[in-house]
Amino acid sequence: MCAKKRKGLSDADKAAARLVALYEKAERDIAARITRTMAATDGDKNKLTIRALEQQHKAIKKILKQLLAKTKKPVNEIVNNTFNGGLAVARKELKGAGMTDIVLEMGGINTRTMKVYSEQVYNRMADVVQQANRTTSDIYQALKMNTALTGAIGGYDAIGNVRRNMQKVSEDAGITAFIDKRGRSWNMASYTDMLCRTSSMQIFHQAKTNEYLAHGEDLVIVSSHYPTCDKCAPWNGKVLSLTGETPGYPTMEEAKAAGLFHPNCRHTYGLYIPDDGAGNNQQPEFNNSTSAEFAESLKTAKGNVEALKPEIAWRVAAHTKEEFEGDYPGAALHVTEGGSTVAITADGDIISVCKNPSDRVRGSDLLKLAVDNGGVKLDSYSGNHEFYINNGFEPVSWCRWSDDYASDDWKRANNIKDGDNSWRQKSNAELHVKKENIIFYKYTGKKSKYLEPGDFENAVPAAKDYDAAKAERDKSIE
Ligand SMILES: [Zn+2]
Ligand SMILES: [Zn+2]
Q1: Which residue among 155, 357, 397, 406 sits deepest, i.e. has the most Cβ atoms within 10 Å of its Cβ?
Q2: Separation of 235 CA from ligand 2 center, angstroms?
Q3: In the CATH hierarchy, which top-level class contains the domain 291-477?
Q4: Predicted TM-score (pTM) above 0.70
């Protein structure tokens, strides 16, 4: 979803990039000047005159002043374009849901909201500039003291003071603007970038909220994707009340207080129209099933496939309730109305894809559902290769079939009796159901050039084992 939206940079993105570039250039320039001064000052031997130091300091203050003066325009562009973008998206949603009547006259609320956001972002940028001013002033103050104290003994440790402050300034890392709760330090440019991104999200959401409320709509649905962090997990796909006026729903405020929409959170929200009983509801929520229900549905669906086509049913592993809970904590488990199953683990792995033969949903619909809800990868016996490449999955790595991991289902499909081990010596030509390699895929949305599993296996060397193949594929996704 996101990938499609990011085709081109929006005007807001462009303004943000310009702002970040401005700050980056300024901090580099300042850091380079200070580094040169430090190189010219060699402890007690070479000292710049107080006058020379003052001139340099003045030049730096001028750079910072000009930087702040150039901040306002891009900030306004970011805020206004993002806000108007949010309004447009919300209007489209409302129109799509047949809601065009404005019930609440918003008057100048939108204009005022944009103004407040512009001020807020600008003030944060002013703090960054002020911080840089303080750091550089401290350095020059100490350097001047160092010059003034020439010949004096003991007392004020001017050079030590400079060195401590120089930890915040370097040509490579810029000038420290902010240290967060986790102790990570942000330079002027990276802080600006983070501020733009978090503010944009807030502004975009506020615009949508204003527009929903103007149309008397109070319910929104939080997007759902996997993987998701612990803070967001409880709110994935949840319906929230914007104002708290619709009973039976948690409020937006509660969700935010609990951590949803934290910095760099990928969640967003959209208009939610409750089911009116006439079947006009939006698509059903993904992750609609408990582990017990899901395991039961998977067993049933797989059993139905096995009755019809035992030679393919073995490829799906029928995990138990305990396995889902123990091996795949936090997985989103989905059962369609027709009893087909698909699940997405917490790290975006698509598992337990099983189409119930009587379900009208197609296998490719199941995969699309998984991808739309955050599934990014899967692995499968090579017999399913064609199905997966036809649905936008690209093979990345593979491992060979291992007799030691042959499942009971596979043995049953081959009519292998208990205690009979002769199958281990048999080649695929002698087996009814073949020994298939395992291929690891990632979702690209494009059709792979490897039409046959053999094409891929000839082109790419096998990984050492299942775990190695998995690791190789996962690395290609990061
Ligand atoms: Zn999160
Ligand atoms: Zn989130």
Answers
A1: 397
A2: 8
A3: alpha beta
A4: no
